[in-house]
Amino acid sequence: MVPAKPRVLYWFRTDLRLHDSPALKAALDLKPECLYPIWCWDPHYVYRARVGPNRWQYLLDCQSDLSASITKLNPKSKLFVLREAPQTVLAKLFKAWKISHLVFEKDTDAYARQRDEDVIKQAEEAGVEVIVKMGRTLYDPDELVKANGGKPTMSITQVQHAAEKLDEVAKPVPTPESLPDPGNVSLDFEHTPPSPKPDFNDIQRNDKESSYTHLAGPEGDFGVPTLSELGLKPATTQHRGGETLALRALDEIISNKTYTATFAKPATAPTAFDPQSTTLLSPHHHFGSLSVRLFYWRVMDVLKEYKGKQSTIPTNLIGQLLFRDMYFGAQAALGYSLAQTHGNSHCRFIPWHLPSKVDPSNGLVTGDHHIDSPEAETWFDRWKWGKTGFPWIDALMRQLRQEGWIHHLGRHAVACFLTRGGCYIDWERGAEVFEEWLIDHEVSCNSGNWQWLSCTAFYSQFYRCYSPIAFPKKTDAKGDFVRHFCPELKDYPEKFIYEPWKAPIADQKKAGCLIKGDGQETEDGGMKVYPKPMFDFNARRSICLDAMKSAYHTNLYGDNPKVKDGTWRELFPDSAEGPTEGKSAKDAINGEETGKKTRPKRGEEASGDMGVDQDEGEAAEVGGETKGGDQEEKSPGKRKRKGQGTLDAHFGGKRTKR
Fold first, then answer.
1. Nearest-CA neighbor of 597 among 585, 606, 589, 605?
2. Does 282 carry a binding-site annotation?
3. Does Endoplasmic reticulum appear among the keywords (predicted)?
4. Which comes out higher in pLDDT, residue 285 or 611?
5. DSSP 532
6. What is the C-alpha to C-alpha distance for residues 87 and 118, in angstroms, rounded to an integer?
7. pTM of whole model > 0.85?
8. For residues 444 and 333, what is the distance between their CA atoms, to the nearest angstrom?
9. Gap between the Cα atoms of 329 and 108, Å rounded
10. Does 160 have pLDDT greater than 80?
11. What values do phi and psi take at 413, rounded to 5?
12. Rounded distance, CA 364 to CA 342, Å?
């Protein structure tokens, strides 16, 4: 029997805030007898998604701040964290707490959809009414896809055209001034701890993971877990989360009217680090500690009043939010396949090194990869840990690991280097590293951006590559960024800071750092050591360019039967770059096991001027492909449409360049 007055379970997920929360407003509009603000400690994220200590710390910051804000409105209430999977604990809470309504914010991520469908079914069986409201993006991704003809949104132009058929972006709803009491919080039911295997985050732990030992936490107070309970290594980022900090940062940004109105992402400096050149609001949007709708309307208010010349879509702040919606729309349509090549109808197939292993029972990647080339595996490892011998690339990867964030053009540079501009390694390997280390990681945005930068979807100008020497000099000729994140090079002369291997041995000794080896050693005879370049960039760029031309000519997509059964190899010569030998996947696996395919030997010393290659620069902000690398068709007589750049960590914070 339904209670006379609603008893509401409010399930926080991607909306760790009180301001502008349509779902929370819907819960309060029920005028409930009691309101339980809960968070389910989902083992999918604890064990199955790659999450490093920095992003965990950011989440815990957001949860702690939200819980404190709830308690300020009602001293009897807080964020009640339940240490169990939502798929098992919610049905028990419905009964134990006599719940009449379950309310939460809509989440269109592939895993979240599946989880929510299971929970909604359980609620219906228990007679609990479910209310779901959208608040994570400007537009409901499902409605955006529907307005786009049922197709994934692959360009900002498509987003804009689809949005014209929808209502305008909703205005923010008021922040509640009070919250109802929670009811009885007794837990008179059996706790169901999850299985910890497989644990993709085991590498992040230096102690046993124990966050599921007690349903209400070790103190029985439903407290926010700690990094120690998760067994995690300490966080190293200085960036902190929480609604309080998010709103403060937003106020600071909006108070600078000129910055807000003239922000143009390609003009910001990827080498700025203290402070960064962009808003750094993206992790707040990821965790929902800052409403994207509030940000949108605060910016729009400035643009409406600003009298000077303004930046425009796609490079302005509004454009960055539209890119975010574009990727969410793509994932809403494609589901799990957006995050992989296999089965992805809009991702161009490229025979990269280190391809993902796929579970034949469901067509999904397993989280492991084939090692078709030991050399490529070594390159990947050196790229990940910032030991490539290219200071700009290494400094970026070290910043990413330390801070959990790098500028969007920095993300472009390291992604291009790993895929089509150097290593020819599968973009999925890079996406996994970003998933592990980014504090602003979104499945949709991360997957979409890696496809963009690898020229497998959204963008097709694969012949444009970032030079690891010429590009950073545009905004940081002195190399301050490199000196900060690669401190072993801090005393190198300016002319050698991006090419230290060119420094005479006398200059190397004077700077206190020798250029030698492959990154395994850090000192030699009391002197610091920085590795030699792991390959000749110009030579590798040429190899990648030829390979990309061949793959584009073959014109396969991830859903092609030949891609799925491995017979795509029939279309490539055995000598082609990548795991192309044989005629089937079985042949390639045999080759992998025997190591029968060898690559041409490269000279130990890098040769040539590696700074002459054409870099993407602002060209990376020009795209607009509807499928893979195919340009969207233009109407007769119309000029080619300028497309739209990537999102990455879409905005970033303070306004100086270094």
1. 589
2. yes
3. no
4. 285
5. P
6. 7
7. yes
8. 11
9. 9
10. yes
11. -65, -45
12. 7
Q: Which residue intervals of 126-188 are DSSP H helices?
A: 141-147, 156-163
Q: Tokens 């804009």 — which residue?
A: 160
The amino acid at 140: D
DSSP string, 171-216: PPPPPPS--PPP------S---PPP--S-TTGGGBSS---TTSSTT
Beta bridge partners of 612: none
What are the backbone angles phi and psi of residue 61, rounded to the nearest 5°?
Answer: -60, -50
Torsion of CA 49, 52, 56, 57, to 10 degrees: -170
Q: With bands split at pLDDT 50, 70 and 90, how would you rate the model's confidence at 627?
A: low
CA 262, 263, 267, 268 dihedral sign is positive
Q: Per residue in 360-385, is it b (16+ CB within 10 Å) or e — as a string? A: eeeebbeeebbbbbebbbebbebbbe
Amino acid at 519: G
The token pair at 631 is 């340009």
Give the C-alpha separation, 202 to 200, whole Å: 6
Give the whole-angstrom CA distance, residue 635 versus residue 238.
49
Average pLDDT score over residue span 276-302: 98
Annotated binding residue 281 = yes
Cβ-defined contacts of 474-479 (< 8 Å, 24+): 474/617, 475/269, 475/270, 475/271, 475/272, 475/657, 475/658, 476/269, 476/271, 476/658, 479/391
Residue 86's nearest CA partner among 11, 27, 188 is 11
Q: Are residues 281 and 249 in contact, defined by beta-carbon separation less than 8 angstroms?
A: yes
Find out whether 280 is annotated in a ligand binding site.
yes
Place of tokens 């000749």: 536
Q: Tens digits of per-residue pLDDT, 527-570?
A: 999 999 999 999 999 999 999 999 999 999 999 999 999 999 99
DSSP string, 406-472: --HHHHHHHHHHHTTTTT-B-HHHHHHHHHHH-SS--HHHHHHHHHHHTTSSS---TT----TTHHH
What is the edge-to-edge ordering of all strands in the sheet holding 7-11? 80-82, 34-40, 7-11, 101-105, 129-133
Q: Is 279 annotated in some ligand binding site?
A: yes
Statement: residue 21 has pLDDT above 50: yes
Q: Is the pLDDT of residue 193 over 50?
A: yes
Q: What is the pLDDT of residue 656?
A: 33
CA 278 to chain centre: 17
Helices 317-334 and 292-305: angle between axes, nearest 10 degrees: 150
Number of helical H runs and strand E runs in the chain: 23, 12
pLDDT digits (tens, 9 = 90+) for 454-467: 999 999 999 999 99
Write the CB contacts of 487 (distance below 8 Å, at least 6 apart in sequence).
none
Binned at pLDDT 50, 70 and 90, residue 436 comes out as very high
Structural contact between residues 41 and 225, judged by C-beta atoms closer than 8 angstroms: yes
pLDDT of residue 313 exceeding 50: yes
Paired tokens of 428: 């999925």
pLDDT of residue 597: 43
Least Cα distance to 331 among 111, 131, 628, 133 occurs for: 111
**pLDDT for residue 647 is more than 50:** no
